[in-house]
User: What shape does this take?
Amino acid sequence: MQMPRDSFPTDWSPPPVEFLNKHKKAPPARRRPLEDLEKNPPDPNQKAELASLEELFWNMAGPSQQAGTPEISSGGSQCYINNLDYLLQEKREQALEQEWEQLLQQEHPRLKSSVCDDNDDNNDREAVLMPEHRMLVEKFSVSLQVISTVHPGETVFLPRRHPLPYFLDSSRLKPHSPLEELFLRSSLPEQLSFLHNGLLSNLYLHAADCPQPLLQWLFQLLTWPPETSSRAFGLLWDLSIDGLFRQPDEDMHFWCPSLQEVKEVFSSLGAYNPALYPQGPFQHSSRVLESEASLDSQDPPQEVALDIKLSYIYRFLILCLLVRPVSYTDASILSLMELLCRAGLDVGLCLLPKTDLQQLLLLLLERIQEWPGKLQPLCCALSWVSDHHHNLLALVQFFLDVTPRGRQLRSQLSLAIIARMLGQQESLPFSGEKTQLTLLSQLLSLMRPSSLRQCLGIETLPSSPGQQSKASAELDHKVCYLCHSLLTLAGVVVSSQDITPNQWGELQLLCMQLDRHISTHIRESPQAMHRTKLKDLATQTYIRWQDLLAHCQPQGQYFSPWKDV
Assistant: This one.
């Protein structure tokens, strides 16, 4: 039994909806001025073009659509029918209107310019505000200047177009197999292919003694792109760990890079020497490009790739310090910590985590042998790593508050930075005659916004009133920004202390000075949201210090106001 086949309709046009036609009328046709029609009748060539266009559309439509398309009735029915005739009619009207407009502009060229001038005058009239309206807008306007939560960073690493070529020093190496001889005699690209293919692991991973030039070469390759540096780090790590298990404890030979080799690796990453360029790399761009021909300042730095390379270097240095605690002297450790802190402030690394760097700095701090004597030179050196107060605050946060040395360094370094920003670094004693809270109370009285404004506003303000108000607003933002960083450092100093009952009075004096010199001098305004943020920080700091006072057992001389009554 055959199933009846469905017959497809030859008319594909949508069915008419009668109940909508009773209420929906077609839009009235656009009216044309009769005088213009009489003066400028349509061109017969244009009529012919439109007719040929209509005929082309009908030929493309096909017979089924031509048969099923309803026509516009000329009688009383004025329903809107979206067919090709109506679209062509609108197209004719638009073409004629555009032609008449062009002819009118050609005959009267001044008409268009006068219309534009009238529009500009109207816009100017609308832009001008009345004095009372302007005062209202200025009263409720909000400034876009805020105190940033991320430090601006320093330009430490310059982008490189190509990595520096490092060649393996195989002059003193004797091959033990034909494959090793082939590797030592190969060129740099061929040696890199050995590394990528895993042949170096087969050659040296289980060997009795790994040659030191190979380890140095792998350490230098950590500055190459991630696809090469990752394989170099993996092989360097495996060879170092494998050598630990193969050598006896009393005769252990573990290779650690020297301070000069670490500096060379950082230089190959693009770090410029501050001693050669003290004013910054971009102010001496010609000298930088002459000495470093592979630098390219146009390409943006690859922050993620740089962070990966630095992470490999940090991890291997951590392994070296764990295996050989006395591998670096105190002077080398201080120089290395300064180099690492400067590298951590790179502008491309501001938003990236620094877990490996923090672990390495903490380990270096514990490896200092003469710790009490090296604290002062270390704080003095680190306080001059950057000239921006927010960068120095981020530098303090590099050191974790998990060990006694870490807390002591954070406290002393914060005091050194505050004294430097206030111009009091020469009067800051490091001998320990005065406690850190006493020194902080002396510096806190200089942190009032009015005093900072006098220090920062040495330059004369512009003469015009508009520029003068703008410069005053920028100066106010700088003052609040600096005060915010200094107050945060003051909180680090207090939080790093083990508050004893003997220090209760000093902490109470700090609370009084905080409320007197900072909190009462901040006037909040909707036009200056940075003041509100500074006010919030001062309030939170005051509450935190008051909480420390509440949990500290004070001496009787501080809390007995009714003793003599």
Remarks:
- Residues 18-128 form one domain.
